[in-house]
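User: Run a structure prediction on this.
Assistant: Running it now.
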Amino acid sequence: MLNRPLLELKRRAEEIAQKIGAATGMLPDFDGMSYSERPRVIVKGRGPFEYNLIYEERGHETERIVFHNEDDILYNIFSKIVDALALQVASANSVTDVDSRRVAFPYGEALIGSIDIAWQRRLQLDHEHEIQKRPFDDFQMARLDYYMALMKSGISSENAHALAEEKYPR
C-alpha cells in the first residue's frame, strides 16, 4: 500500500512525464519494490518527509540518494529522463563531426524548462560542470575511425593514437 506522500509524488511524476512526452516506463517504481532495472522511490517519515531514490542490481542496493523535499527528488528524476530524451533526439539528428551534447544539452534544457524554469537553470549548471570535466569533442568519431584504419594497416597502437590525435585534435 502506497502512503499519501508517495501517492502524491507518483501522481506529480506521471503528470510531468505526460507533459513532456516521456513514457511512464522511464519513471522509477513507486510501489516500494523494484522488479525491474528502474530505481525505486520510498518516502519515510510523518513530515517533514524523507524521499529515497534507491538503485538496485540483482536485488542488492547499490546506491541510495536521500532528498528532503519533493522538488529535489523530482528534479533528479526528470533531469535524467530529459537527458535521455535529449540524447535520443541528438542521436536521431546526428551531424558528423559534432559532439552530440551540443544538440542534446540545449534540447534537454528547453524541455526541462517547460516543467520548471528553476530546473532549467539547475540543468544548465549541471551541463556546464560536465563540459568543464569533459569538454566538447567534435572529432571523437573521426579520430576513432582514423585510429582504427591506421591499426588495420599495421601501425602500432601507440603510433596510430598519436597520428589520430594529430589529425583530429581535441
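The radius of gyration is 21 Å.
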